[in-house]
Amino acid sequence: MKHHKSQHNHHKSPLHHHQSPPNHFLSHLLFFLLLILAGCEKVIDVDLNETSPEIVIEGNLSFEDGVLKVIISKTGSYFSTTPSEKVENALVYLVDDEETLMNAKHIGLGIYKAEGLPARSGAEYSLHVEAEEREFVAKSTLHAPVKLDSLSYEYQNSARFFDGGYRILLYFSDPPGEENFYRVKVHKNGELLNEVGDLIVFDDSRLDGKGIQVRLRGQLFDRGDTATVQLLTIDKSTWHYFTTFREMASLNPGSPAPANPASNFSNGALGYFSAWSGDEKEIIIE
Question: With contact defined as beta carbons under 8 Å apart, do 217 and 18 qualify?
Fold first, then answer.
């Protein structure tokens, strides 16, 4: 394993425009996906067979506070009931497009963290993880945040597949002339809604430069509830990962899995690295 010295220590939903107010191939293996989104953390357990343990890396770099958080674990056995093993002795560091190296410190339970990093809009970042005599690298471009214009809500009567209740609508203007990729995270009374059905990712296909409305059909609110909505701007590789993750998680339990979600890490690691920015608004259902 190489050692590095820090060179810089400080360092779903239908979409509408406003005119109408929104490789890892593993053959013959079974896997089980569990998505736990606690706060801003994203923890993935991917269970393979007895002979195929894999490194799983979940890395996030936030534009708002310059915090890098990386969680490293190993997949367990498909038939095991024990939690996934955390990787405690990895070397984790971030390199920006100016070749500034920033180390992350292990804080326990397989979590590595660095704070106060000089996150820059438009910069490409490389996350390096050295673990078990292998190196894994993923790249992600940090895009500028897109402002949420407003939130509203509407009552939806119960129907065959929906309970009655209030749904949230969010409005924003897509920056013109560029591909943009988004993720929406919703908190209900301060608690993140974190089921697989709450994973909302989309791009601006056919909506470039337009006002966009997103109607959150899967999140149900009552009078007196507070809804907090985050609009995250992500890059294409992160969008692709979560899109394929959602597809994998929607498979019937026990179905043969043709592949794992599309990781952006090299050397066979599972998981993702995402540099992201965001905007947030809150609304009370009255």
Answer: no
At 96, list the tokens.
């920006």
Task: Give Cα 198 distance to the centre of its chain.
Answer: 12
Q: Which pair of structure tokens corresponds to residue 49?
A: 């067979």
Residue 68 CB: number of other CB atoms within 10 A?
25
**Taking the domains of the chain in order of start, what are their residue ranges?**
27-143+236-277, 148-234
- Tell me the CATH number for domain 148-234: 2.60.40
Q: Are strands 15-17 and 211-221 parallel, antiparallel or unpaired?
A: antiparallel
SS3 label, residue 247: helix
Q: Which of 171, 133, 139, 137 is nearest to 152 (CA)?
A: 171
Q: For residue 205, how many C-alpha atoms fall within 13 Å in the half-sphere facing its CB?
A: 6
List the pLDDT tens digit at each of the 286 positions of the chain: 444 444 444 444 446 544 433 334 333 333 333 333 333 444 445 444 344 668 999 999 999 999 999 999 997 644 445 667 899 999 999 999 999 999 999 999 999 999 999 899 999 999 999 999 999 999 999 999 999 999 999 998 877 766 789 999 999 999 999 999 999 999 999 999 998 889 999 999 999 999 999 999 889 999 999 999 999 999 999 999 999 988 877 765 555 444 678 999 999 999 999 999 999 999 999 9
CA count, 13 A, side-chain hemisphere, 243: 13
Which residues, 6 or more positions from 71, have their beta carbon under 8 angstroms from its beta carbon? 41, 43, 57, 58, 59, 110, 111, 112
pTM above the 0.70 mark? yes
What is the 8-class DSSP label of residue 143? P
